[in-house]
Specification:
The protein is α/β, with parallel strands linked by helices. The chain has one domain: NAD(P)-binding Rossmann-like Domain (Rossmann fold). Helices cover about 40% and strands about 15% of the residues. The model has no long low-confidence stretch (mean pLDDT about 95). This is Short-chain dehydrogenase. InterPro entries: NAD(P)-bd_dom_sf (IPR036291), SDR (IPR050259), SDR_fam (IPR002347). It comes from Chryseobacterium flavum. Belongs to the short-chain dehydrogenases/reductases (SDR) family.
């Protein structure tokens, strides 16, 4: 009987979709490592909630824009794993951390573009690269994208375009890592009520109503609509899903 407990690492796991994903993954019986950028108190609250389920959890600070910090981060994570499990490996990497950018093409600055590229593409690429030696064969990578990589709404040209790049990168990951039986997939949420982007979808009644009207199921998404799909991809039931984009948007802009 295999009694090994799988381990998932969720970036940006202290709030929003990352928090919900971390909790849902723990409910599937996995131990969880989360990262947070600045709010340690929020992160520790998530860790404590996971521990209350009987699973192991820990939070590490990480700014996914600061690529030069990745070596030290990986060393800290693997040292923790060595001490707590006797090994250095994880099974699933969920690249979730991110920020929003709402700005028309005429107003986007080079600094804003660079920030989105660094956080959402370079950060995803190089963190995955650094962690690959420590992902078990047969494990998985889940990259969080967006419905904005499929449809265009004014003001999201940079964010949507970079997420489209992440989706193509995921296919290359699936292809190149197939020899290690590592799956790579995309989860692409639609518009969700969180504090993402300053709570734009959650708090702006006009935006909320527009999204609900454009969604077949007639409402805006909630974090609880997304985390379970991410968690499913961290289970044996999803072993034959690879190189796929799963949009979880309630049927937005069909």
């Amino acid at each position: 009987m295999n009694t090994k407990t799988n381990i998932a690492l969720v970036t940006g796991g202290s709030r929003g979709l990352g928090k919900n994903s971390a909790l849902k993954i723990a409910q599937k019986g996995l131990d969880v490592i989360i990262t947070y950028r600045s709010n340690r108190e929020e992160a520790e609250a998530v860790v404590n909630e996971i521990k209350s389920m009987g699973r192991n959890a820990i939070a590490f600070q990480l700014d996914t824009k600061d690529i030069k910090s990745f070596d030290a981060f990986v060393k800290d994570v693997t040292s923790h794993l060595q001490e707590s499990t006797g090994g250095t490996h994880i099974d699933y990497l969920i690249n979730n951390a991110g920020t929003a950018l709402y700005s028309p093409i005429t107003e986007v600055t080079e600094e804003e573009l660079d920030d989105v590229v660094d956080i959402h593409f370079k950060g995803v690429f190089f963190l995955t690269q650094k962690l690959l030696p420590f992902i078990n064969d047969g494990g998985g990578i889940i990259n969080v994208s967006s419905g904005l990589a499929r449809f265009a709404t004014p003001g999201s040209s940079i964010y949507g375009s970079i997420k489209a790049g992440v989706e193509m990168l995921t296919k290359y990951m699936a292809k190149e890592l197939g020899s290690r039986k590592i799956k790579a997939n995309v989860v692409a949420p639609g518009a969700i009520e969180t504090d993402f982007g300053g709570g734009r979808v959650r708090d702006n009644e006009e935006v909320n109503a527009m999204v609900a009207g454009a969604t077949a199921l007639g409402r805006v998404g909630l974090p609880d609509d997304i985390g379970g799909v991410v968690a499913f991809l961290c289970t044996e039931d999803a072993r034959w899903i690879n190189g796929q984009r799963i949009e979880v948007s309630g049927g937005m802009f069909l």
